[in-house]
Amino acid sequence: MIVITLTKVPNSLRGDLTKWYQEIQTGVYVGNVTAKIRDELWNRIMRDIGNGQATMVYNINNELGYTFKTTRPDREVVDYDGIPLMMHLVSADKPIKHGFSNAAKFHKAKVMSKRVESKSGEGQEISIQSKPFVSIDIETTGLDVATDNIIAIGAVKSSGIAVEKFYQLININQKIPAAITKLTTLTSEQLISEGIPLEDALSGLQKFIGDSPLIGYNVHFDESFLTASFRKTRLSILANHFYDLMPVVKKNNQFLDNYRLKTVLETYKIKNEHPHNALADAQATYELAEQLIKKRVLRF
Questions:
Q1: Predicted confidence band of residue 9 (pLDDT cuts 50, 70, 90)
Q2: Which residue, among 65, 53, 1, has the nearest Cα to 29 in the 3D structure?
Q3: 3-state secondary structure of 41
Q4: What string of DSSP letters covers 123-184?
Q5: Which fold has domain 2-88?
Q6: pLDDT tens digits for 15-52?
Q7: 133-295 CATH pick, 1.10.760.10, 2.60.120.1440, 3.30.420.10, 3.40.50.720
Q8: Average pLDDT for the chain
Q9: Integer Cα distance of 164 and 253 in angstroms
């Protein structure tokens, strides 16, 4: 038996899950599928969750007979002598944000942009002021934040004068799966010779990003791995706000065949000659964010 709870997720994700599970109550899904399908569906949840939250409980061969996963920032799954426990953190890593919802902000921005256009004249380009941001991307040994590790971090930011870049390989002291090497071209030998300890890489990233907002594509994946890694190394958790470009693209491009980064970049005519390279993906995502800002659909 598998139980999944979802809150504040896109309706498209809810509909997708009903193909495999029964929704017995709003946001509560139960079903019984193979471990492979279960893991694939969880990966799909991680990909499409947007700013929502998800928790999954499923059968496993341990003393309790079950274990769980969660994306909630105020909870952490810990292993205590083989028994999974849900740790209730004293406070969420991020402060509660007060104010209008994203939908209300988009509506207000759309109304205001139309007012500006009517005053400025049709076809006139309006300059958009946006605070500096950092585009971020990571490569990992897999998709499970509890068992897999970050192997590369890429980030791009603009200082107003020039674009600055951050790229670091991480020595994880373990063999990289062949599938990951094929996808990213990174090898275990390369990480040993060029990589640095995770703690040093995260410290360097913190200095690079400062207090700038962080943007990414399906950024919840990056955020969950980074948060887990900062906890693992006992460094201060990032207080920066994360902005996910995927929901913005879905809202403004509703008829794409799919919303993989490759497809979206082709739609916006952005070249990425080295996909699945953390720095190249961060650079492409940065260019995507710039286009969305110019189209007045993304603001910080």
A1: confident
A2: 1
A3: helix
A4: TPPPP------EEEEEEESSS-TTT--EEEEEEEEE-SSSEEEEEEEB--SSPPPHHHHHHH
A5: Alpha-Beta Plaits (3.30.70)
A6: 878 888 988 888 899 998 888 888 888 888 888 888 88
A7: 3.30.420.10
A8: 84
A9: 29
Q: In Å, what is the CA distance from 187 to each residue of 170, 182, 217?
A: 11, 9, 25
Contacts of 234 (CB under 8 A, 6+ apart): none
- Domain range summary for the chain, segments of one domain joined by +: 2-88, 133-295
C-alpha 71: how far from chain center = 11
Phi (first) and psi of residue 126, to 5 degrees: -100, 130
pTM higher than the cut 0.85: no
Query: Per-residue confidence at 90, pLDDT binned at 50, 70, 90?
Result: low
> Rounded distance, CA 52 to CA 169, Å?
30
Count other Cβ atoms within 10 Å, centred on residue 200.
Answer: 14
